[in-house]
Design a protein that fits this description.
The protein is α/β, with parallel strands linked by helices and about 575 residues long. It folds into three domains: about 100 residues, Phosphohistidine domain (Glucose Oxidase, domain 1); about 110 residues, PtsI, HPr-binding domain (Enzyme I, Chain A, domain 2), CATH 1.10.274; about 300 residues, TIM Barrel (Alpha-Beta Barrel), CATH 3.20.20. It has 23 helices and 16 strands. Strand 7 and strand 8 form a beta hairpin. The protein starts with a strand and ends with a helix. Bound molecules: phosphoenolpyruvate (PEP) and magnesium ion. Phosphoenolpyruvate (PEP) binds next to strand 10 and helix 18. One of its GO terms (cellular component) is cytoplasm. It holds the Pfam family PEP-utilizers.
Length: about 575
């Protein structure tokens, strides 16, 4: 009998193979004390040398297979291994308390792991996994326990494990490792990031898969839906094999769109497909996926990944890097959008009943002008390295926009006076994500050079439904005619004033939204990098003239589902 499980789809694709159950050798940490502490320290140092050689080798393999960014994980491992705070603590335990080396390393590691996993920031939580990975390796060498080498697998398998450490993932050869399924993890864990880079399917967070599977039994995983089937029937295997072939065909077809222009079936060439990024290093993913610009750089991540407000110089370096790497293609950088769910460790926000409706984004920047001006100076100085657009988040009133723009112009004048160069073509625009602004988009269009529609917030504020709440998630309705009418009026308002308009909310990359946005003649679609090629494919198969008629019908519908059904009926055949 087959057994169906539901986990978190962490890397798309379908894999069908035999289970390779990755069972870590079990060992106990000895508690006995030692007499010869000098010999014990020498043992620790020998284990460190072996672990360090492994880490260097893994760094080289990863660099070759996955590139510098992923290999950096092992640089971090090297740093952990040589971190004096940890090693000195362990040596002190050996010297002072005569603890054995494995016990000392284990005890010190537990302390650091507890510290990092207790932090809210997912980045630091992941560091706990790195410490465990490095110290487990050391302990195995100290106890003569075999260090498992996944590189020896030579048949097609799906790895089933409690969790996969970065060093284990790095050893996987995609020729044999067809995917993996783990009890732990989610979309932002290392295992997920590695799976996406290797382009192999992964389903994580399955909770009990290790206890439900046997080594070498059949298994199928769908990294998109998160479904896993253990011991599938012949019929299920046939069904999934066909789906896998279809997926492979679609991926192959998508790649052909990488270097193609974005053109609709009836020859409309004005749509531009861009990527959303959170850090300068994300630019490469956008370019690799055929992105034609950056429609949203969420600059708040520079602030959140820091322990102080980033200085003008620190920000200048980051913005310059993005602009240079995009080589003259448009880059829209959003000014600090902090508050709501995005907080800073070094700044105390006032306590409010509804932080999403409170002191945040442009409201905070207009209040804390020093923070705002520092960012604007960095942006303006970087502007000479490419084609920059500056965008303000959470604008509700024309007065806010005018005030923010006036500060930009003041800083520009000051910089020029100080002898800095500032580009003449910097565009100043705003997010359209608050209904009050959307309704009078035509008025804003007199002052803003462009709009970018932030549907993530526009939907939450229009539907009065917190985007973080699972209890009202049914109200996240991008296709509700109220939302569609608002979006259309924003686009029309901009166009009537001769301004361009983009969308950088999640909706811009959704397959069902693209036909409607084509019909509304949205100019710029900005989305996560991996959605770009499919968006280009969809646009190439549809006619703008037909989509304009579809929009007319859609805005007269009553419900979200009615619109979705209408879009599906109108596009299904063309998109097959
Ligand atoms: C939005 O609100 O749609 C948006 C793009 O901004 P964020 O998701 O960062 O709030
Ligand atoms: Mg927003």
């Amino acid at each position: 009998m087959s057994n169906k499980m539901q986990g978190i789809g962490a890397s798309q694709g379908i894999a069908i193979a035999k289970v390779f159950k990755l069972e870590e050798p079990k060992y106990l940490i000895p508690e006995e004390n030692v007499n010869d502490t000098t010999a014990e320290i020498a043992k620790l140092e020998a284990a460190m040398t072996k672990a360090s050689a492994d880490i260097t080798r893994l760094q080289e393999i990863t660099l070759e297979k996955l590139g510098a960014e992923k290999a950096a994980i092992f640089e971090a491992h090297g740093q952990i291994l040589n971190d004096p705070a940890m090693i000195d603590d362990a040596k002190a335990m050996i010297n002072n308390d005569q603890n054995n080396a494995a016990f000392a390393i284990h005890t010190v590691a537990q302390k650091f792991i507890a510290m990092f996993s207790g932090m809210d920031d997912p980045y630091f939580k992941e560091r706990a996994a790195d410490i465990k990975d490095v110290t487990d390796r050391l302990i195995k060498y100290l106890l003569n326990v075999p260090v498992l080498d996944l590189a020896t697998i030579n048949e097609e398998v799906i790895i089933v494990a409690d969790d996969l450490t970065p060093s284990q993932t790095a050893q996987l050869d995609p020729k044999f490792a067809k995917g993996f399924a783990c009890d732990m993890g989610g979309r932002t864990s290392h295992a997920a990031i590695m799976a996406r880079s290797l382009e192999i399917p992964a389903v994580l967070g399955l909770k009990t898969i290790t206890s439900q599977t046997k080594h070498h039994e059949n298994i199928m995983i769908n990294g998109e839906t998160g479904v896993v089937i253990l011991n599938p029937s012949d019929n299920e295997i046939a069904e999934w094999t066909a789906a896998r072939a279809k997926f492979a065909e679609q991926q192959g077809e998508l790649l052909t769109f990488k270097d193609k222009a974005t053109v609709s079936k009836d020859g409309y060439t004005k749509f531009v497909l861009e990527g959303n990024i959170g850090s300068p290093k994300d630019v490469h993913g956008v370019l690799d996926n055929g992105g034609e610009g950056i429609g949203l750089f969420r600059s708040e991540f520079l602030y959140m990944d820091n322990d102080h407000f980033p200085t003008e110089e620190e920000q200048f370096v980051a913005y310059k890097e993005v602009l240079e790497n995009m080589q003259g293609k448009a880059v829209i950088i959003r000014t600090l959008d902090i508050g709501g769910d995005k907080t800073l460790s070094y700044f105390e926000f006032p306590h409010e009943m509804n932080p999403f409706l409170g002191y945040r984004a442009i409201r905070l920047c207009l209040d804390k002008e020093d923070v705002f001006r520092t960012q604007l100076r960095a942006l303006l100085r970087a502007s000479v390295y490419g084609h920059l657009g500056i965008m303000f988040p959470m604008i509700a009133t024309v007065d806010e926009f005018k005030a923010a723009k006036a500060i930009v112009l003041e800083e520009k004048a000051k910089l020029v006076q100080e002898g800095h160069k500032v580009a003449d073509d910097v565009e100043i625009g705003m997010m359209m994500e608050i209904p009050a602004a959307a309704v009078i988009a035509d008025q804003f269009a007199k002052y803003a050079d462009f709009f970018s529609i932030g549907t993530n917030d526009l939907i939450q504020y229009t539907m009065a439904a917190d985007r973080m709440s699972q209890f009202v998630s049914y109200l996240y309705q991008p296709y509700n005619p109220s939302i569609l009418r608002l979006i259309k009026s924003i686009i029309d308002g901009a166009h009537q004033a001769g301004k361009w308009v983009g969308m950088c909310g999640e909706m811009a990359g959704e397959a069902a939204a693209i036909p409607l946005l084509m019909g509304m003649k949205l100019d710029y679609f900005s989305m996560s990098a991996t959605s770009i090629l499919n968006a280009r494919r969809i646009i190439s198969k549809l006619e703008v003239s037909a989509m304009e008629k579809l929009v007319e019908q859609a805005i007269m519908c009553e419900t979200n589902d009615e619109v979705l059904a209408l879009v599906e009926a109108a596009t299904k055949e063309a998109l097959q």
